[in-house]
Amino acid sequence: MRSMRRGITTNSESGAVSIRPFEDRDEATVVAVWHRSGRAAYPFLPTWQAFTLEHAEKVFRDVIRPRCDIWVGTRDERVVAFLALAGSYIDRMYVEPTEWRKGWGTRFVLFAKRLHPNGLELHTHQENHAARRLYEHHGFRAVKFGLSPPPENSPDVEYHWRPADRE
Fold first, then answer.
1. Contact criterion met (CB below 8 Å) for 73 and 12
2. Average confidence (pLDDT) per 10 residues, the chain, 167 residues
3. d(CA 162, CA 156)
4. Can you tell me whether residue 71 is helix, strand or coil?
5. Domains recognised in the chain with CATH numbers
6. 81 alpha carbon, distance to own chain's centre
């Protein structure tokens, strides 16, 4: 295992997996993963179903990159997931649909906890049951229910994890 600054690498039955810092050369792949994953995860959100790859590229470049530290998950050196952190806030965490249920959510949550041992925060959609189970399994507590900002305006939930909440 390498230092957190450089990322982590482990071997699994299905190949070498690692979490490493985002590099410029990752952008097109990360945007494509984000776009495919969001469309697959959010069939209940018309705005996501209408979200084009071109618009995703613009949002990633103009909004996510400037404000977040981004980490990529790789399997055999191929980017299959990403985590975007704005300080202790998990801004985005998306996994290639073919990699769902293969441990990426857990890897990223544990990684984020090591980076921010004093606590983490995030929002997710109330209908995103798989994500909610993941976060709750890892000790996150729902602290507020509301609506996501426009254009989605979808019911969401704010989660916090604090060291006192450790499993």
1. no
2. 51 79 98 96 90 95 97 96 98 97 96 97 96 97 94 94 77
3. 20
4. strand
5. 8-165 (3.40.630.30)
6. 8
